[in-house]
Amino acid sequence: MSFLKTMLVIAFIIIYVTLSHVALAVHDAHRIWRQIAMLMLLVPMSSIACWGAVTLLKQLGVNKLLRLSCGIAMAFSLAYAVLIFWPVLLARLDLIYLTEHIATNSMLCWFFAHTLFAGRTPIITTLARTIHAEMPDNVERYTRNVTVAWALFFAVQIALSLLIFIFGSIEVWSLFANVLNWPLVILMFAVEYACRKRVNRDFPHATIKESIDAYFNNSRKA
């Protein structure tokens, strides 16, 4: 990723986090900030839903024209539903953000956890093998433990999110779920990297960027 693209991504994240936090802190359901925040949530969520439906139809062998027609019909149906329930959605913006936060962390937790089942290769082990074809047993054990750690990290995120939402204020919850979300993920990366350097001192270490690039390159070949 080029420097310009990286800066644009960072700028988008900062804008998204700021608007989300401001929108949840504003209690007037019709303020412009809440409406913008609602659109920022619903547009990508609706797009993912339409894409998922079209992908499922493709797997079922449905022809391209019918898939496209169903995707368009679903998009218009969702837009109509949003238009009808817009006042209700604005009033319960907090619940929508909670749903999005729980769903995202649940998917990420499952992404790591399901590779730990019997007969499967932990995702971090797979990622490490794209760079190091041969790894000592202790390194393989470490990569499995890292996979467990990431699964637990997202599971803890879910638990804390629910607890703060139920027992705390929406401002505190937004601080945790929106403002601190990315810093916590970055901190997790940093802690894992420090542990990796300490536990496997004599093993050559790839950077986070090299690991991610190697993983996606391997996925394309597969």
Automatic annotation (TrEMBL):
Membrane-crossing ranges are 35-56, 68-90, 110-128, 148-167, 173-195
What keywords were assigned to this record?
Membrane, Transmembrane, Transmembrane helix
Q: Which domain of life is it from?
A: Bacteria
Q: What is this protein called?
A: Uncharacterized protein
Name its species.
Herminiimonas aquatilis
Q: What is the lineage of its organism?
A: Bacteria, Pseudomonadati, Pseudomonadota, Betaproteobacteria, Burkholderiales
